[in-house]
Amino acid sequence: MNYHDGTLARADETSTGPSSPTRDEVYQICLRHLKSGELEQAAARCREGLASDANHAGLLHLMAGVALLNGDYDAAINWAGRALTSEMKATYLATFGTALLGKGMQAQAFEAFQRAVALDPVDPSIWENFGNALNRVGQADQASLCFLIARAYQKLPFLGECGSVPRNEWNALTAEFNPHLRTRARSDEARDPIHCFWSNVPLSDMSRLSLQSMVRQGHPVRLYTYDNLAAMQARVPSGVMVVDAASLVPAAIYQHAVLNSDIRYFSDIFRYAVLHELGGWWLDTDIVLVKPLDFGREHVFSTQWSGVEQGHVCVGDVMRAPKGSVHMANLYALSLQRMFSENRVEYGAVGPLLLSEYLLVAGGEELQSSILPPSSFNAIDRREVELFAVAGRAGFELLSDPRVTGVHLWGRMWAERGLRFDAVPEESVAGYLKKLVLEPNWLTQLAAKYDSDKGATAKGDVAHHYTRVYHELFRSKALEPVRILEIGLCRGRVEGRAQDQVPSLQMWLDYFPNAEIIGVDIEDFSWFSHPRVRIHRLDQGDRGMLEELARKEKPLDIIIDDGSHASVHQHLTLGVLFPALKPGGLFVIEGLDWQPPEIPSGRAPLVKDVLNAMKQGGAFASNVMTEAEAKLISDEVDEILVNDSFRELISRGLLGGLGVLRRRA
User: b or e along 75-101 (b: 16 or more beta carbons within 10 Å of the residue's beta carbon)?
Assistant: First the structure.
């Protein structure tokens, strides 16, 4: 973009225009003449308008543009100065700066451009013109940075928009940015390898957490190091393979980079090399994965919220490339050139700055369609690292976007802010991630904490231990704003126990920090109050009440039927509520082994038998549902899981007490 395509092309957007329709019409006519190169007509029309309104800032600015195009810098300075006297606008300052530069008044010109970007730091056309001005006086590096900033605000508009909305709305700004990039991996799919690097210092607890999270998501993980391989292998989590980094990049390059800059500088170089050589994913060892990696693209790149002013827009914390990628080969070569030939050893020179230039300035549409918004991995920015370490809702809310696939902890920032990873509260984001990743039985521990029979034991007895299944089913959605409906809120109603606890609701509140929980029971649980909980009272055997519930609460991500356990009720509940389940949602039915004797069966087939028959390739059979309800389940369920209740397995030798139906995505 040049000056005339940039600043003047936005003049109609930035000028307020006269209040009189006649003068406004004149302004638009002048602008059209100027854009089409009809300078004499533009000047004549501008003068007509100024004759009736001598201080019209927009027309004065257009006259400055005409003067610039004619090479009359004195006139341009005069006209732009008059426009600024009428109204201080960044675009007018940029025009003023261009005219001053034309007159050789470099210092004054750059002061005008600096004032312009201070006044409107997110206008791409101003940065573009500032870059052109810098190029004219031979300041190529500074010009390149201006052009990069301009491209960042053009290609990633949310980076400019975020300054005008509250912080908790930033993720929403990225909703339409490369919407095709969504995680889509299923549990039965093979995972691409993840490559990481660690050397020179002992492996940190944060990095162990990061590596463990990658293993937990089913990825082969390779950690490259120049340290002693056996010693490093002894320190990494099980499932991580330690590899000699010198097999990919000579140790001499590593030593040169660390001697002249720091280890982060070398890490930026190494990631290009390993992805070109082997393909797969690169992750920094302070990324905690909460979902498996599969975005359906050969190349994937990441971005961050802050750093535009340094040109640090695209960041290498997460990248994907196929083996032999020409782009990784180019980046590797360019990074070595900067280090050895250009002696550019400042932080970011071969990392965020180089990557941003390559993708946003030199890259084409294909590469730019492979860029993820910050929401995917950097939803919490490096400037907000305290949010990881304090108890409170703010950090969790920023991570509630369903696109969040990993959480970048920004490890280096912890030391700079005086934060300790080993001292975070359990209620903080970092404390939560530790439990989610490092505790394979964490949901079972929560069940024990609240005395839920979904865990391993309850009230001193063997319990169902459904939590072992739930943790694997639900953990990829643990941070999402899911909507969970559970029928049956307490235990022992038939036995006469007081209905004065809500163990599973409390368990879900801890496990899903951003979820909305809807509790349903035949008893009155309205006494329980929580900002993220809503309670309904209904009879599970009443179709009308179930239909009203479905109308009120759809759509739902997870439905758990832990109500009466009578097959007739389970059929009815599944038939009525299944349409309220989102595509890809889960419908869970507990207590398939037990039928309450006080509830007539209505000759309803056992749901466990129906599910097992359907798994063998049949349709869902029900004499309780309508024909349409049963057909919808037959057509829309694409996965059925049947797991054991440990209580029933041990006490009665029965298998298959828990059924899970996944709706087709």
Answer: bbbbbbebbbebbebbbbbbbbbbbbb
